What we know:
By secondary structure, the protein is of the alpha/beta class. The chain contains five helices and six strands; from the N terminus they run H-E-E-H-E-H-H-E-H-E-E.
Amino acid sequence: MKKAGILNRHLAGALAELGHGDGVLVCDAGMPIPDGPRVVDLAFLAGVPSFAEVVDGLLAELVVEGATAATEVREANPAAAGLLDGHFAGPLLTLVPHEELKRLSAGARLVVRTGEARPYANVLLRCGVFF
Length: 131
């Protein structure tokens, strides 16, 4: 049994299968989930687990070379925008209209659904390489 890091067996296994360039969509409870990507649904109750908790946990285990989020997050969800700005400084974060983010999410290899109940708490992570 693991003693640290992500303990959810489905999520830990899915993360181990990711490679350089793969996309991971971390989304709120309301984001439409596209057909195709593997889905690990962590949503338990509204707000549990939060977008911030899941993003922080994933970033502790993944190498991420970039991220894409919805432009609308800046105005509609300043807390999520601040979290993303804190993790992805400058050119590491690309903002696109929400409809474009939904289109891009169809190419993700993994979708991790949170219980987040605030709008536009979604980010498409692009996996990097550790060397």
